C-alpha cells in the first residue's frame, strides 16, 4: 500500500477547469506548491483546491481502459489470433501485471485525495457550511466510485477512510460486504449534500449520485449478501434519473462533438482546449482503431487518428440489425483518401479502405481500386497491416493533433461517464431481476426506438443476454464491459463464445472473476495483505 498511500504533497495540486474551452475556471490558477499547512488552512479557497484535485485524479480512473474493455465479448486485443495475453486471454495473469497495478493505483489515488479533503475540511477557517457540504458530498461520491471499481475488480480491499500523513503499511483487507456498506454510506451522504443543479457544468449533481447508487445496488443485488430490495431500490433511483434526463432524439446527435452537452448527459469529465486545465487530454478518440496510415491515400490524420490497441470483436459488429442508427454513428466502414497516391490511382476524397457489412465476392473486390476487407478477414494480415477492422467514430475529436503512443493525446472532448441511455439499461436489468419484464421491455424499447428500431421487444423476449446485447450497441467504449459481464454472471460464457483470442487459449476460469492483488502492495505490507485465490 505504500506505493499508493505514502505521504503525498497535498499542497501541490493541479487546477481543474470546468469549462469546455477553459473560459470559466472552477479555481484561480495560483501556485500553491510552496504554501504551508498553516497558510493553507487559513484560506477557504484551499478546500476548493482539495476538491478539484479529486476531480483531476478521476481523469486517470476513467481513462484506464485495459481492465474495463479487454477480455470481454465485444473487445479483444488488436493482434492476429495467435499467441497469448494476460489481460485479454487470461493466460498467466500475474500479480505483477502493469494494468492490474495501475487499476489499483489510480483508484486509491482518488481515495487518498478524497480523504484529504474530508479530513482537512475541519481545519480550514472561514469555510462556509454550504461550500463544505457540497465539497464533501462531491468527494464522497468519487470515493464511492473508486471503491466500487476496486471491490468489483479485486474483491474485498482495505478501507482507508482518513488521510494518512505518515507512511503506513499495516493494512488488511475488508470483506466485500463491508466495502459495499461503506460505498452506500458515502453515496447516501453524497445524495444528501449535492445540489440538483450544480453551480458549474461538470460538477456532481444529485442525479449523478443516483445513477451510481442505482448501479451499485443493482450489482450488490446479485451477491450473496444482497437482496431483492437492492433491485427495487436500484430501479427506483434509475426512474428518478430517467425522468430528469430525457434521451436525445438522435443517436448521431448524441455522439457528435457539437452536441456533447445535452439532456441525456448526467456526468462528464471535462477537458477542453485550454492546455493548462486539459492536462494530458482525453484519449477516447484513439480507442478501437488500427494503424490505417500505411494504406494508399492515407496519412497520419487529425480526423482518423492512430489507435490505442484494443479492437472490437467480430461479434460486436454482428450485433447491429438493419436500420439500427447506432451502427453508422458508432463505427466507420469507409475511409476516404487524405493524400493523392498515383501508384494506386487514388486521389484525395476517393475511397481508400472499405469494410462491407456482408462479404463481397473476390471478383467484386478485385474490380475496386481501393482496399476492401471482408468481415472474416479482420484479424488476418492483408499485406498492409496485421489486423484491420471498421474504426470507432463515436469518440472522434477532429482537429486534435495526431499523436504516437507515449505522447499526450490532447483530446478536447468531454468524456461522458454517465448518461440516461445507460440508466435505462440499469433499470431494465433491475426490473428483469424483479420479474417485471413489462417495465424492462419499456426501457429497452425506449433506446431501441431512438436508434430507429421500430419493432418493439415484448416482455417475453427480455433476457439478461438481450440486455447485454443492447448495452453493447448503446454503450460500447463508454462503460466497463468487464464489470457488466461479471455482474450478470455472463463473463466466462460470453468471453469464450465471442472473444476469438480468449477462445483460442481457453484459459479463463472462475478465479478470473477477481484480479490479482498487485504484488508490490503485498510486499510492502510484509504479506499482511492477502492475495486472491490461485494467484500465488
TrEMBL record:
UniProt keyword list: Cell outer membrane, Membrane, Signal
Residues covered by the RagB/SusD domain: 352-535
Main location: membrane
Localization in the cell: Cell outer membrane
SusD-like N-terminal domain residues: 25-218
Pfam hit, one: SusD_RagB
Signal peptide span: 1-22
InterPro entries on file: SusD-like_N, SusD_RagB_dom, TPR-like_helical_dom_sf
Family statement drawn from the similarity comment of this UniProt entry: Belongs to the SusD family.
Protein name: RagB/SusD family nutrient uptake outer membrane protein
Amino acid at each position: 500500500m505504500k506505493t499508493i498511500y505514502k505521504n503525498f504533497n497535498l499542497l501541490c495540486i493541479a487546477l481543474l477547469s470546468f469549462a469546455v474551452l477553459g473560459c470559466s475556471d472552477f479555481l484561480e490558477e495560483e501556485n500553491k506548491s510552496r504554501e504551508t499547512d498553516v497558510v493553507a488552512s487559513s484560506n477557504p479557497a484551499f478546500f476548493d483546491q482539495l476538491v478539484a484535485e479529486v476531480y483531476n485524479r478521476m481523469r486517470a480512473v476513467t481513462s484506464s481502459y485495459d481492465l474495463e474493455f479487454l477480455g470481454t465479448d465485444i473487445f479483444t486485443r488488436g493482434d492476429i489470433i495467435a499467441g497469448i495475453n494476460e489481460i485479454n486471454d487470461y493466460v498467466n495473469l500475474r500479480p505483477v501485471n502493469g494494468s492490474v497495478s495501475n487499476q489499483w493505483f489510480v483508484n486509491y489515488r482518488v481515495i487518498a485525495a478524497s480523504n484529504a479533503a474530508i479530513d482537512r475540511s475541519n481545519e480550514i477557517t472561514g469555510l462556509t457550511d454550504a461550500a463544505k457540504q457540497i465539497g464533501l458530498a462531491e468527494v464522497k461520491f468519487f470515493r464511492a466510485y473508486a471503491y466500487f471499481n476496486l471491490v468489483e475488480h479485486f474483491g474485498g480491499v482495505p478501507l482507508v477512510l482518513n488521510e494518512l500523513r505518515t507512511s503506513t503499511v499495516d493494512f488488511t483487507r475488508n470483506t466485500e460486504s463491508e466495502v459495499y456498506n461503506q460505498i452506500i454510506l458515502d453515496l447516501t451522504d453524497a445524495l444528501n449534500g449535492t445540489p440538483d443543479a450544480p453551480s458549474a457544468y461538470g460538477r456532481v449533481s444529485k442525479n449523478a449520485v443516483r445513477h451510481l447508487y442505482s448501479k451499485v445496488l443493482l450489482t450488490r443485488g446479485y451477491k450473496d449478501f444482497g437482496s431483492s430490495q437492492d433491485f427495487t431500490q436500484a430501479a427506483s433511483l434509475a426512474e428518478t434519473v430517467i425522468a430528469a434526463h430525457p434521451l436525445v432524439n438522435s443517436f448521431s446527435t448524441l455522439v457528435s462533438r457539437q452536441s456533447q452537452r445535452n439532456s441525456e448527459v448526467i456526468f462528464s469529465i471535462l477537458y477542453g482546449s485550454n492546455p493548462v486545465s486539459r492536462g494530458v487530454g482525453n484519449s477516447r478518440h484513439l480507442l478501437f482503431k488500427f494503424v490505417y496510415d500505411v494504406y494508399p491515400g492515407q496519412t497520419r490524420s487529425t480526423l482518423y487518428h492512430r489507435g490505442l490497441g484494443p479492437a472490437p470483436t467480430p461479434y460486436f459488429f454482428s450485433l447491429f440489425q438493419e436500420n439500427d442508427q447506432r451502427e453508422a454513428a458508432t463505427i466507420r466502414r469507409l475511409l476516404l483518401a487524405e493524400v493523392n497516391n498515383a501508384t494506386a490511382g487514388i486521389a484525395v476524397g476517393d475511397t481508400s479502405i472499405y469494410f462491407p457489412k456482408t462479404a463481397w465476392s473476390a471478383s467484386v473486390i478485385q474490380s475496386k481500386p481501393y482496399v476492401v476487407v471482408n468481415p472474416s478477414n479482420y484479424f488476418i494480415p492483408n499485406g498492409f497491416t496485421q489486423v484491420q477492422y471498421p474504426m470507432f467514430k463515436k469518440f472522434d475529436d477532429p482537429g486534435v493533433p495526431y499523436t504516437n503512443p507515449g505522447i499526450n493525446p490532447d483530446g478536447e472532448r468531454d468524456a461522458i461517464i454517465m448518461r440516461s441511455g445507460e440508466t435505462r439499461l440499469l433499470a431494465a436489468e433491475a426490473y428483469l431481476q424483479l420479474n417485471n419484464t413489462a417495465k424492462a421491455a419499456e426501457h429497452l424499447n425506449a433506446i431501441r426506438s431512438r436508434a430507429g428500431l421500430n419493432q418493439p421487444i415484448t416482455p417475453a423476449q427480455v433476457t439478461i443476454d438481450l440486455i447485454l446485447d443492447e448495452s453493447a450497441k448503446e454503450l460500447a467504449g463508454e462503460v466497463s464491459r468487464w464489470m457488466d459481464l461479471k455482474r450478470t454472471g455472463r463473463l466466462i460464457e460470453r468471453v469464450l463464445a465471442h472473444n476469438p483470442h480468449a477462445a483460442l487459449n481457453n484459459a479463463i476460469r472462475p478465479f478470473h472473476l477477481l484480479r490479482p492483488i498487485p504484488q508490490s502492495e503485498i510486499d510492502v505490507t510484509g504479506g499482511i495483505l492477502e492475495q486472491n485465490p490461485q494467484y500465488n
